[in-house]
Amino acid sequence: MLLLAVVLLVGCAQQEEWDNDQVGNFEALWTIMDEHYSFFDYKQVDWNEIHSRYRALVSNKMTDRELFDICGDMLKELRDGHTNLIASHDVSRYWIWEQWPVNYDERIIDQHYLNFDYKMASGIKYQILTDNFGYMYYGSFSSIIGEGNLDLILSYLATADGLIIDVRDNGGGLLTNVEKLVSRFIDKKTLAGYICHKTGKGHNDVSEPYAYYFEPTKNHIHYLKPVVVLANRSSFSASNNFVSIMKSLDNVTVVGDTTGGGSGLPFTSELPNGWRVRFSSCPVMDPQGKITEFGVTPDVRVDMDEQDRTRDAILDKAIEILTQKTANNL
Amino acid sequence: MMADAKLVKLAEFVVKRMKRFLTYLLVVFALSAMGQERVSMFMVDVGYASIHDSYLTPITYDGLDLAMTYEAMRPTRFSPDKWLWQLQVGADFNYVENDAQNNHLDKLMGDITFDMQRRWKEVIAHRVNLSVGPITQLRAGIIYNPVNSNNTVSVRAHWNVGVTGMASYNTRLWRKPITLRYQAQLPVVGVFFAPEFDESYYEIYLGNHRNLAHLGWWGNRFDMTNYVGADLHLGKTTLRIGYRNRLEHWSVNNLKVHDVSHSIVLGIGTSH
Questions:
Q1: B192 touching A (Cβ < 8 Å)
Q2: What is the distance in angstroms between the Cα of A153 and the nearest Cα belonging to chain B?
Q3: What is the pLDDT of residues A232-250, one digit of tens each?
Q4: For chain A, which domains are there?
Q5: B197 vs chain A: nearest CA distance in angstroms?
Q6: What are the DSSP E strand ranges found in A177-318?
Q7: Which residues of B touch A15 (CB under 8 A)?
Q8: φ and ψ at B11, to 5 degrees?
Q9: Would you say B41 and B71 are in contact if contact means Cβ atoms under 8 Å apart?
Q10: Staple A19 to which of A24, A39, A273, B92, CB 3.0 to 4.6 Å?
Q11: CA angle A308, A310, A313 (to 5 degrees)
C-alpha cells in the first residue's frame, strides 16, 4: 500500500513538460499566459484565436531572435504595460505612454519653480513654493519611504496652505509605499480598493474581490489640508494605484493627464529556454470597485504647452486650484 | 490479442512481485527497532536536490542539498526497556538551478521532529532490533526566486503526525562495534500552508486569509524521509555515515510541489 501510494503520488507529480525548441517554447509561453493572465475577459482578447494566428508563424528552424519577435508581438495583443518577455538580448514591451504627450519636465520645475533650491529625503524632492504651497515630487515607488523621513518632510511643509504631490513619470514600485504615503493624508480608516487573484487555470477562475483599507499612521504627522496630485501617462502601476486612492479622498484633486494604468499585480514565470515572462496576475481595483488597467482620469485635465520652456501648465493649474480652495476656506 | 495476453501475464507478474515486496516492507516497518541505548549525534548532509514549485515557476530546478541535524535518542523513563524517544532538530538549504542555467532558487527550511517508539530486541534474528511508533514534525521555511516579481517567495509550513519505524543490526567491523540502521519517517495527516493559485503575499498581508490552511493527507500530500547508515563506535565517540532521502509532494489550490533530495550523511556523536 505504501509503495502504491508512492507510485501514485510520484506519478501525479509529473508537471507540464515542453520541448526546449522554438515550438516548445512558444507553446510554453502561450500556455503560461493562458493559465495565469487575468485580463482576457476585461480586454475581450480571444487568446485561442491569437494562438492560431501566431503558431502558424513559428517553426523550429527559426532563430531565437525571430522567435522572440513573434512572441513579443503576440504579447503586445494584450495591451498591457506589465507584460514583458525578457531574454538576454531584449525585453518585449507595450509601453504605450512613450507615444502620449510627455506632460512633465523636471528642468522647468527645478529652474522656474524651485530655483534649484529644494530638499530631498526618501527619494522625495520637496520645498515650499513662493505661493506658500508645499511641493513634493516622488519619482519612484521603489524608493523606500521611511516613516521618520516622512515626518520630517511633512513637518517642514506643515505651514504651507496646501500641498502638491507630483507623481508624474513615476513608473511604480512597491505598493507598501503607496500605503505609507496615503496613510498620511487620511484621518480615519479608509477604503483603498479591492484586490483579487486567479484561483485556477480557467480564464474565469478569479477570486471574489477583497476589500482592503488603509488606516491613518499612528503617532506620526498627517497632512489634512487641501492636496492636489499631479499625474501623467507615465504614472504607472503603483503610481496609478496611488492616484486612484488619493482621487477618492474628499480634500484631494487630481490634475494633469490620465495615468498610464497597470492595475494588475505582475507575476513572473519562465520558459524552458530560460526566457522570463512577466504578466498581470492579480487585478487591483479602485475604491469604487473599478479596474483601472487603462488608467485613472484626472479631475481636471490639463496638458503642458510643449513650446513654453518656462511654465508647467499642470503645476500652474494645481496652484490655481489650491489658491481657490484656501480662499474659500478663509 | 497476443499482445493483450502478454500484457496480462506481465501485470500478474508485477502484482505478485509487488505483493511480496510490500509484505516484506510491512514486516520491517511494523517491527522496527534500535541497537544503541542512548545516542547524541550531529550530522551534515551533502547531496542532490530537485525542486518543483509551480507557484514560482513551471520549470523543475536541481542542484545542491545541504543540511545540519542534531539527533538525540533515549530510553523513556516510564518504560526504558520497551520504549524510546527520538528528537531531531535540523535546518537544510538548497541551491538549485534551471536547465538554462540563468536562474537559481534558494530554499531554506527548518524542522523539529519528535517520536516515541515501542521496541523489540532481537525478535527476528540475533542482534536485530526493531521499533515503531508515532511521530510528529513541524517543518517550515521559504524558497526564494530572485528574478520573480510579486511571486518571488514561496512559504512552506507544515505540521504533521505519522508513523516512524527503525531496524538496526549490531555487528563488528575491524573488531570495532558497528550498528547498521534503517529508519523511515512517514507523516500521515497534518496541516499545511498554501496560498491560492496566483494569490500574492501582498493580498495576504492586506488581510485576506481565506483558504490558506489545508488538511494534509495522502489524497493531497505525501512526505517521506528514509535514512540508512552505519554507526561506527570508537570508544565514547561514534562516527556515522549514511544516506538520506527526503520527499515532499503536495497538490492543492491548483498548485503543485514536488521536492526530492538524495544526500550522503556524515555525523559525529556519542552512543552507549
A1: no
A2: 27
A3: 999 999 999 999 999 999 9
A4: 99-264+282-329 (3.90.226.10)
A5: 5
A6: 190-195, 210-214, 227-231, 252-256, 264-270, 276-285, 300-301
A7: 52, 54, 58, 60, 256, 258
A8: -65, -45
A9: yes
A10: A24
A11: 70
Residue A213: closest CA among chain B residues belongs to which residue?
B206
CA distances from B107 to A209, B91, B194, B223, B264 (A): 32, 10, 16, 17, 19
Burial A143-173 (b: 16+ CB within 10 A, else e): eebeeeebbebbebbeebbbbbbbbbbbbbb
* Residue length of chain B: 272
10 Å CB burial of residue A327 (0-12, 13-18, 19+) is exposed
Q: Which pLDDT score is estimated for B38?
A: 87
- Residue pair B79/B120 in contact by the 8 Å Cβ criterion: no
Contacts with B2 (C-beta within 8 Å, 6 or more apart), sequence order: none
The verdict on a CB contact (< 8 Å) between A2 and B198 is no
Report CB contact under 8 Å: B103, A88.
no
Task: Tell which B residues from 69 to 108 touch A, by Cβ distance under 8 Å.
Answer: 98-103
- Angle at which helices A175-182 and A147-157 cross, to 10°: 40
To which residue does cell 497632512 refer? A223
Find all residues with CB under 8 Å of A104, minimum gap 6, and list them: A168, A169, A232, A234, A304, A312, A314
In this structure, are residues A184 and A152 in contact, taking their beta carbons and an 8 Å threshold? Answer: no
Domain B31-271: CATH class, spelled out = mainly beta
Q: Is the pLDDT of residue B196 over 90?
A: yes
Domain-wise residue ranges, chain B? 31-271
Query: What are the backbone dihedrals phi and psi of residue A72, each rounded to the nearest 5 degrees, phi first?
Result: -60, -45
Are residues B256 and A13, on separate chains, in Cβ contact within 8 Å?
A: yes
For B179, list phi and psi in degrees, rounded to 5.
-115, 120
Q: What pTM was computed for the model?
A: 0.87
Chain segment A144-184, per-residue pLDDT in tens: 999 999 999 999 999 999 999 999 999 999 999 999 999 99
Q: What is the 3-state secondary structure (H, E, C) of B149-196?
A: CCCCEEEEEEEEEEEEEEEEEEEEECCEEEEEEEEEEEEEEEEEECCC
Amino acid code (one letter) for A242? F
User: Which residue among B52, B151, B207 sits closest to A267, beta carbon to beta carbon?
Assistant: B151
List pLDDT tens digits, range B65-119.
999 999 999 999 999 989 999 999 999 999 999 999 999 999 999 999 999 999 9
**What residues of A are in the B interface, CB distance below 8 Å?**
1-6, 9-10, 12-13, 15-16, 20, 28, 32, 36, 38, 88, 175-176, 195, 197-201, 205, 207, 210, 212, 265-270, 272-274, 276, 278, 281-282
Instruction: Please list every residue in chain A whose beta carbon sits closer than 8 Å to the beta carbon of residue B259.
Output: none
B193 touches B212 (CB < 8 A) = yes
User: What are the tens digits of pLDDT across the range B208-260?
Assistant: 999 999 999 999 999 999 999 999 999 889 999 999 999 999 999 999 999 99
Q: How high is the ipTM of this complex?
A: 0.90
Do A259 and A198 meet the contact criterion of CB atoms below 8 Å apart?
Answer: no
Cell of A227: 492636496
User: Please, how many CA atoms are within 13 Å of residue B261, restricted to the half-sphere of its CB?
Assistant: 25
